[in-house]
Write a structure and sequence with these properties.
By secondary structure, the chain is mostly beta strands. The chain has 3 domains: about 1-115, Immunoglobulin-like (Sandwich); about 120-260, Cupredoxins -  blue copper proteins (Immunoglobulin-like), CATH 2.60.40; about 290-430, Immunoglobulin-like (Sandwich), CATH 2.60.40.420. It is built from 4 helices and 34 strands. It has helices at about 100, 145-150, 315-320, 415-420, and strands spanning about 1-5, 15, 25-30, 35-40, 50-55, 75-85, 90-95, 105-115, 120-130, 160, 170, 175-185, 190-195, 200-205, 205-210, 220, 225-230, 240-245, 255-260, 290-295, 305-310, 310-315, 325, 330, 340-345, 350-355, 360-365, 370-375, 380, 385, 390, 395-400, 405-415, 425-430. Strand 28 and strand 29 (about 380) form a beta hairpin. The chain starts with a strand and ends with a strand. The model has no long low-confidence stretch (mean pLDDT about 95).
C-alpha cells in the first residue's frame, strides 16, 4: 500500500510504498524457536514478494519470485510460515524488482529475541536507508539506469533512520544500550563513527561475536548487513556528540547527534554477558569441497565478454541489455536461473571468492549462514558468522558453511543495481 516516508517536522512526507502504511514496515518481534506466520496482502498495482533476509527459512518461504514462489499478484494474498531458528537482528524486504520496490520503501525489521533477556537498559533499532529525491520532493524514477548499474549503484541524496530524517538521539549517562543497526539502502555503504564513545560490536548479521571495538572506530555496514552494538552512556549530562558517516570521505556528514539528558541514570546493570551462540552447523574444513567464485564486470573492469542467455556477449551489448556484471563468466537475466553449483545436502563447502572489479560488492547467500575465514589470505580476527559479506575491490574472501537447507538459493550482490545488472547466481542443495 502507499504511505509516506522521510517525515520531517513541518514538511510533507514523500509518497512511498509501505508495509502497513509506514516506512519502515512494522517491526516483527518474536522469541527464538517461535513459529512465525505472516499474512501478506498485496494492495499495490504490481506484483511483489517478501524475502526474510538472513533468516534460515524453508525454501518455499524465501520470497524469491519465479524461483521459490509465484509473485504475489495485485489483490492476492500469501502466507509465509517458518520457525525462528536463530536469535538476532534480521530484516525483510521485497525481492521483486528490488531496485524500485526497496527504494520506494518496502522493507522492515525482524527481531528474534533470545530465550532469556540480556542486561540492557534499552534495545534500540536504527534501520538506515538513503533516498534519491527530486527537487519537487518525490522519489526519483531513475530506477536501474545504466550508470547506476555499471558503477556504485543507486546512491541517494537523503539519508534516513527508521524512515525519518532524525537529528538527535536521546541518551542518559550510565545507561547501556543494545543498538541494532541494519542497512536497507540500495547501494550506500555506511561507516559510522561515534564521537567520544567506544561502542563494542557484539553481533554481526544477527549472530553473536566476541565483543570488540570496530576497526579504526568505524562501524561498517554494506547493503543487507546488520551489526549489534553495546553502546554505553559514558559522557556527561547535557552534552552532545556526533555520529558521523565517513565511508565516502568527500561526502562525510553527521547522521545523528547523541544528546545526553540532564539527569543521569543509575548504573545498576549487572556485568555484560554475550548472547549464547545460535544452533549453526560448523563446517568441516578438512573435508570441505572448494569452489572458486569470481565476480567480474562494471566500469573500469576487465570483463570483455560473458554468457548471457547461453550466448557469448560483449560488454557493449551487455550494457544495452541493462547488464554489466557476471559471476564466473555468467550474467544473470532474472531470478529463474539454472543452478551454477550443485551442493550435496549436509556437506561442508568453502567458497573462495574473488572480487575482480573496481567496485565494492555486498555478497549475500540465501538460506544459509557462513563463517568468514580469510581476507586476502589472512585469517579474520573473529571468524564471524554472516550471511552478507562486504568485498572491497580486488579483495579475496574465503567463507565456509554446511549446505544443510535443501532447495534453490540465490547468491548475489546486495547492491541491488549490481544484482539486477547480472551479479546473481543460484546454488542448488539436494
Amino acid at each position: 500500500m502507499e504511505g509516506h516516508a522521510l517525515r520531517d517536522p513541518g514538511k510533507p512526507g514523500v509518497l512511498a510504498w509501505t508495509y502497513n502504511g509506514g516506512v519502515p514496515g512494522p517491526q516483527l518481534r518474536v522469541r527464538q524457536r517461535d513459529r512465525v506466520r505472516i499474512h501478506v496482502e498485496n494492495l499495490l498495482s504490481v506484483p511483489t514478494t517478501v524475502h526474510w533476509h538472513g533468516v534460515r527459512v524453508p525454501n518455499a518461504m524465501d520470497g524469491v519470485p519465479h524461483l521459490t514462489q509465484r509473485p504475489i499478484a495485485p489483490g492476492e494474498r500469501f502466507t509465509y510460515e517458518f520457525d525462528a531458528l536463530d536469535a538476532g537482528t534480521y530484516w525483510y524486504h521485497s525481492h521483486f524488482k528490488s531496485s524500485e520496490q526497496m527504494e520506494r520503501g518496502l522493507y522492515g525489521m525482524m527481531i528474534v529475541d533470545e530465550p532469556d533477556d540480556l542486561p540492557f537498559s534499552r534495545d534500540v533499532t536504527w534501520l538506515l536507508d538513503d533516498w534519491r529525491i527530486t527537487a519537487s520532493g518525490s522519489v526519483s524514477e531513475t530506477f536501474g539506469n545504466a550508470h547506476d548499474i555499471s558503477h556504485a549503484g543507486r546512491i541517494g541524496n537523503v539519508v534516513t533512520v527508521n524512515g525519518s530524517m532524525h537529528e538527535e538521539f536521546a541518551i542518559r549517562t550510565g545507561e547501556r544500550i543494545r543498538l541494532r543497526l541494519a542497512n536497507a539502502a540500495n547501494a550506500r555503504i555506511f561507516a559510522l563513527k561515534f564521537q567520544n564513545h567506544r561502542p563494542l560490536i557484539i553481533a554481526l548479521d544477527g549472530h553473536p561475536v566476541r565483543p570488540h571495538e570496530p576497526v579504526q572506530d568505524r562501524v561498517i555496514l554494506a547493503p543487507g548487513m546488520r551489526c549489534d552494538l553495546l553502546l554505553e552512556g559514558s559522557q556527561q549530562p547535557g552534552t552532545r556528540h556526533d555520529v558521523q558517516d565517513l565511508f565516502y570521505p568527500r561526502d562525510a556528514y553527521v547522521l545523528m547527534q547523541l544528546v545526553y539528558e540532564n539527569e543521569a541514570r543509575a548504573a545498576d546493570l549487572t556485568a555484560f554477558t554475550p548472547a549464547p551462540a545460535n544452533p549453526l552447523p560448523e563446517p568441516d574444513l578438512t573435508s570441505a569441497a572448494v569452489h572458486e567464485i569470481r565476480f567480474e564486470g562494471g566500469m573500469m573492469g576487465s570483463l570483455h565478454r560473458a554468457l548471457l542467455d547461453g550466448q557469448p556477449t560483449d560488454m557493449r551489448a551487455l550494457l544495452r541489455r541493462g547488464k554489466a556484471w557476471a559471476v564466473n563468466g555468467v550474467v544473470s537475466d532474472g531470478h529463474a536461473m539454472q543452478p551454477s553449483l550443485h551442493l550435496k545436502r549436509g556437506r561442508s563447502y568453502l567458497f573462495r571468492m574473488n572480487n575482480a572489479t573496481r567496485w565494492h560488492h555486498s555478497i549475500h547467500l540465501h538460506g544459509h549462514t557462513f563463517r568468514v575465514l580469510r581476507r586476502n589470505g589472512k585469517a579474520t580476527d573473529h571468524q564471524e558468522w554472516q550471511d552478507t559479506v562486504l568485498m572491497a575491490p580486488d579483495e579475496h574472501v574465503d567463507v565456509a558453511f554446511v549446505a544443510d537447507n535443501p532447495g534453490d538459493w540465490m547468491f548475489h550482490c546486495h547492491i541491488v543495481e549490481h544484482m539486477e545488472g547480472g551479479m546473481m547466481s543460484v546454488i542448488r542443495v539436494l
